[in-house]
Amino acid sequence: MLRKQWQTVVLKLIRRKLSEQEKKQVQSRLQKAYSENGEGFYVHAPKQKGNVKQQLGYIGRYMRRPAIAVSRIEAYDGKMVTFRYRDKTDGEEKTETISVEEFIGRVIRHIPDENFKTIRYYGVYSRRIKSLCKKLVSEWQKVARRWIVKAKRMLKRRTWSERIKEQTGKPPCCSKCESYYEYKGEVCLEDGNLKVKYAVCSTSKACLERMIRNVTGVQETKGSQEKEETTQRAA
Hints:
- This protein is an alpha+beta fold.
- The chain folds into four domains: 1-46; 51-119, no CATH class; 123-155; 160-234, no CATH class.
- The protein is built from seven helices and five strands, in the order H-H-H-E-E-E-H-H-H-E-E-H.
- Strand 2 and strand 3 (93-99) form a beta hairpin.
- It starts with a helix and ends with a helix.
C-alpha cells in the first residue's frame, strides 16, 4: 500500500509540472510505469522485521512528539549543536556535531504540511462508517440495558414466601385454615439452645423470643415429668 501510494503521488507531481501537450506525449509512458508487472517503478519498502509492538510504539511516539528529545542534545555554543542518536545499522549510540542551520533544517523536515493527517482513524472511529457505527452501538446499548435489567431482577433477593412458592409451586399456607403464612424471622439452634437468627422488626423478634421461651418451658416440663416417672418406677 505504501509503495502504490508513493507512486501515485510522484506521478501526480510529474503531471502537475507538464503542459497539456506534454501530458499527451508522456501519458502512455506514465501509465505503463505505474501498472507494468503490477509494480511500476521500484520503491524500496521492505517488510518490517523484529518486534512489531516495539516498532508501533516508536511510530506512535514519533507522531505525537518532536523529532528529537531535548535530553539528547548534549551541547550548544550558539554555532554548533552536539546530539546523541542511535545508529540503525549497528544499533549503537553515537554522537554527532553539526551547525545550527543544518540542525534546524533536519528538524523542520519532520514538521507536517498544513492540513496533513498524521493519524487516520479506522474501524468505529472511521468517518466513512461513522453513522453506521453509531447506529450499531446504539442497538448494542439497548440490548445491553435489557440484559442488565434482567440480571438485576435475577440477582434481587427473594423473600421467604417467594422461595417457598418457587420450590412448591404455591405460596406457604396452613393446611387446616388455609391462611397464608407470613415470614417474620428465623430461629436456629446454637450450642444446644434456640436463638433468633433474623427478625423483620422488633415486634417479630419479641414474638419469636416468646415462642422460644414457650417451647423451652414445655421441653423442661416434659423433661421433669419424665424424670419423676423414672424415679417412681425405680422406687
